[in-house]
Amino acid sequence: MALLDPNIQDEIYKLQNLAFEKHAENKLEEMTRFFEQAWDLCPGPKGNWNEATNSAKYAFRCYMKEKDYDQARLWVNRMTDANNIQEQDDYDVLLYRGIYLFETRKYKDAYEHFKELVKLCGYRAFEGEDPTYERFAKDPSDFLHAQEAGSSGEEDSSPEELPDDLYEEIEGLLEKGDEAAEEEDYPKAIEWYTTALTQLPSHPSDWEISLHIYTALGDACYNMEDLDKAHESYSQALKCPGGVETGYVWFGLGQIYYEQEEIKKAEDAFMRAYMLEGEEIFEDIEPSYLEVIEAYIRK
Asked: Which of 72, 138, 216, 261 has the least CB density, counted as fewest CB within 10 Å?
């Protein structure tokens, strides 16, 4: 594939970064303008340039988060067209189109996309995504039956709440773990966090409080240099309500990937953290982490 002129490349990175900033500020019209400018800077045909495909991916993610499905459809179609010209693997296209179809409740079509995706690369394709997508790919029957019954899958999907007394007990264990972590007694903190998880009903990741517990457990394990356990904990945090939208969890995963020299995975995780929280999440932290995504956020 041909390489884009470095000056154009730099300008595209700058525009993408400006779009992320405007998204964080909820200035969506300005965000749209910067994404469009980044797209337009790539000479035609757009599919010749990875920069165009990446702009489409980033824009799609932002619009899906805003539930602006018209714009999301526009950008996933652009990504599809670019991918067809590049004749690259269809992994991202299948995933993103499947997500779009699922969120717009076109469940049969979404399942066909996810089924083909799983054939190509297995369920690892859903790593870091809303766990609902993987569950749907494994068994879409609940969604399909609900749609056939006329409910369109619109039943209340908010997390079930724990009984007050159990919540208070778990919160007390969590606070003890946090206190131990503040004193850098990480083994004791891990003990308290693990005990808190055992008090939860089945499927701990279904409960909102689990996001805090798994994230704190990941931090403690990371400080103990147990990277495998930290990775497992942060990955579980992503599956909790609100986990995918929590930049700190992505940042924690990025740290682990960086330390394990899996730089591409670190780049993806840090970029997601940046898109959610901005550059502030990298303040007072090892500067080499920010350098991993510097090319994408250079101004």
From this structure: 261
